[in-house]
Amino acid sequence: MDRFFIRLFFPTAILGGILLTLGTHGVDQMFVQRILACRSESDAQKAMISSGIFVFFQFVLFLSIGVLLYFYYKDPSIPKDKVFSKFILEEVPSPITGFLLAAILASAMSTLSSSINSLSLTTKVDLKIEQFGSGTLSLFWGMILLLSSLLPLFLTTGKKGLVELGLSISSYTVGPIISIFLSGRIQSFYYMQKLKDSFASLAIGLTPILTLIFGKWTGSSFTLLVPFGIGTCWLLGFSLLQIQNRLTSQK
């Protein structure tokens, strides 16, 4: 049983990776708004399928680079977050270094702009904060993201790199988001649609907290946090529905 909770145990890594990808490339607002920009449903389906294929080869490339860097340096004392930058600065010729830095900057700008647009849209439409314009909300979230990017300077990641730390943070919230999505697709999750807003908010709000406690208590990998979050949100929603029905019957 201890093996089940160790970092990156292969079966749990596969399961957690699939569910995490479902959250980030299926129900995440940043990805959904790109799908909504397609001309038709068939175009949206083609975009999602092609994105999945592209991301698969993208991760094969990333993992291959990591393996090659591991065999190139063979020095475990080098911080994980500095290996690639060390290789670029010391081993890569100047013209190629410029292309690599430009590609990294372009990728970061693309992700940041999509994140800012998603946060601004959610703030304006879902939270119904309409007294501020889109430009003001975009500026606000841009400043928030700028400040949050400085947090790693004050965090002690231990043996984890920044990439794993970032995936761990996102795993706390992906579980309830997937549960909401499943409530409209799978019959066993339909009951969540019957929850009143207050009970649904309680289930969704408690899930990341319980997931955080679970992760700290077991010391498990972030790949386990997503399935735990889905199961926790399902159990919380089911329990709260029973309480809601009992309160309704007593009136």
Task: Give a summary of the structure in a few sentences.
The chain is 76% helix and 0% strand. It is mainly α. It has 2 domains: 2-93 and 160-250, no CATH class; 94-149.
Please state the structural category. mainly alpha
What is the ordering of alpha helices and beta strands?
Answer: HHHHHHHHHH
Give the count of helical stretches: 10
End-to-end span in angstroms?
A: 46 Å
User: What is the overall shape?
Assistant: globular
What is the number of independent domains? 2
Helix content: over 70%
* Main pleated sheet: none
Low-confidence stretches: none
Could you tell me the radius of gyration in angstroms?
Answer: 21 Å
**What's the mean pLDDT score?**
76
Q: What does this protein look like?
A:
With 251 residues, the chain is mainly alpha-helical. The protein folds into 2 domains: 183 residues, no CATH class; 56 residues. Helix 2 crosses helix 3. The longest helix is centred in the first third of the chain and has 33 residues. The radius of gyration is 21 Å and the shape is globular. The N and C termini lie far apart (46 Å). The model has no long low-confidence stretch (mean pLDDT 76).
List keywords for this structure.
251 residues, mainly alpha, 2 domains, globular
Ordered list of secondary-structure elements with their pairings:
Blueprint: H1 2-5, H2 10-27, H3 29-36, H4 41-73, H5 83-91, H6 94-126, H7 134-148, H8 162-182, H9 197-218, H10 222-250
Helix pairs in contact: 2-3, 2-8, 2-10, 3-6, 6-7, 8-9, 8-10, 9-10
